[in-house]
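Re: [ENG-882] Designed sequences occasionally contain unexpected residues at chain ends

Forwarding the minimal case from QA. Structure tokens:
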């Protein structure tokens, strides 16, 4: 039986990068540019360095992050990412400056958040009346504390009984520990959960390997629609509760 529903966050609860037009409207740098500028500014407070050198070190650290993330299923924390950049430059920052860089980097998507996807609040309210709900999501750059705040600010956090964020769990999807953590928090077996997300490898095949049901959500990203093995494909929150109920009935 399906007793709990787990949700990816990026492009499932919120529309990833929908914050970029908001930044542009305020005359701000893109997130990619601002992250590099934060590190560069802090380094210059200690010893002058050119932005091009910082950009190169940041790019190398990002490439390393992606290998570790996608091949080892480990999501570096913001602190680890900044340390990788500094190591590449052979530089250090005083603790106060380092902590400021980490906070400013991690707070960017909290201060100017991506949009919640249309209909998500109504669907969560509906589902929370019948199932335990839990977030299972990679943190990427914004830590779990910040992601909770984004959910709180959209009045969505109230519907979730648990949160498995990769920077807190120590692994990223589709590693089993992410789903084990969710199951433990909501008090069910892993195979009694159904997962919803936008990426076939992480959000469909990962849960399937654990005996879970999985729905591909395509409201903002449908790149995997043509080759997914999902139990269902849903492109609107208006259709999600009925689809889950149908799968739950079939699993009885």
């Amino acid at each position: 039986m399906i007793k709990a529903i787990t949700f990816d966050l990026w492009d499932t609860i919120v529309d990833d990068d929908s914050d970029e037009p908001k930044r542009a409207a305020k005359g701000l740098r893109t997130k990619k540019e601002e992250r590099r500028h934060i590190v560069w500014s802090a380094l210059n407070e200690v010893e002058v360095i050119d932005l091009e050198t910082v950009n190169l070190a940041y790019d190398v650290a990002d490439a390393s992050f992606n290998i570790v993330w996608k091949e080892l299923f480990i999501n570096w924390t913001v602190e680890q990412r900044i340390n990788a950049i500094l190591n590449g430059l052979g530089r250090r920052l005083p603790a106060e400056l380092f902590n400021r860089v980490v906070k400013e980097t991690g707070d960017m998507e909290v201060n100017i958040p991506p949009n919640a996807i249309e209909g998500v609040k109504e669907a969560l309210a509906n589902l929370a009346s019948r199932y335990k709900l839990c977030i299972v999501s990679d943190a990427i750059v914004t830590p779990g504390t910040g992601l909770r705040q984004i959910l709180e600010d959209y009045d969505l956090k109230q519907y979730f009984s648990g949160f498995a964020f990769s920077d807190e769990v120590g692994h990223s999807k589709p590693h089993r520990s992410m789903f084990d953590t969710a199951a433990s928090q909501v008090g069910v077996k892993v195979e009694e959960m159904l997962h919803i997300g936008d990426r076939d490898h992480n959000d469909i095949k990962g849960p399937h390997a654990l005996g879970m049901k999985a729905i591909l959500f395509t409201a903002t990203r449908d790149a995997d629609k043509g080759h997914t093995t999902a139990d269902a494909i849903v492109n609107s929150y208006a259709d999600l509760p009925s689809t889950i109920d149908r799968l739950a009935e079939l699993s009885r």
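QA comment: On inspection the terminal residues look reasonable. The mean pLDDT is 97. Proposing we downgrade this to a documentation issue.
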